[in-house]
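Standup notes
- HV: blocked on the assembly model, inputs below
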Amino acid sequence: MSARNRYTCGWIRNIYQQLFSYFGPQHWWPAESPFEVIIGAILTQNTAWTNVEQAISRLKQKQLLTPQKLYRIKTKTLAGLIRSCGYYNIKAARLKSFLQALFCDFGGCLKSLFSLSTPKLREKLLQINGIGPETADSILLYAAERPVFVVDAYTKRLLLRHRLIKNKYSYQQIQDLFTKNLPRNLKMFNEYHALIVRLGKEYCRSQARCQLCPLNRKG
DNA sequence: GACCAGGCACATC
DNA sequence: GATGTGCATGGT
């Protein structure tokens, strides 16, 4: 292993410890059921979580947050209910694509879908229109409880700032950095991604806040 | 009023 | 394969 690789490997492992000591457990995903995780994962695409919360509460309020109810509802009606998330027409169609696959191939049963092996489940999710690598991996980790590392915009920004990757790195390359340098541990992958998001939200949005970032402090 | 947020698909080169 | 664009609301 080259010196560069050793450095990266150490960084990936140490940063988790630092973030966990500083912020503590994040208790992700903020949802009451695996189905709610999936809905949230699609709705939060390129969108602030506060906007998603409004849409989820609206669906709950109307008692529509079940596979059966959402499968039956009209796409246009669904779009109106999730308006607060932005991209509501596209996201309504994406939710419908997921539900279509769930009902056509698995009888509307999430347990049945989750009985697939991790590689098959990931492949199945990626076949669904509107589910890309990050959304698929979020579903695998937080809904299906598989030890898969989720890469998002915060993850890439963090690694870029610390000069561990180049801008052209692909999703797969970044994911490999974590999976090859960490034990395959569900709980740790869960916390690590959540901690990166916490860090990003609190410290990476401005240069001034970035100076206060716990990773930039000594001792 | 500008900028950004827990992406993705599609067109074009 | 890389790059650009459309999708859209709500918070700062």
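- HV (later): unblocked. Residues 3-23 of chain A form the longest helix (21 residues). DSSP finds 13 helices and no strands in chain A.
- Next: hand off to the docking folks.
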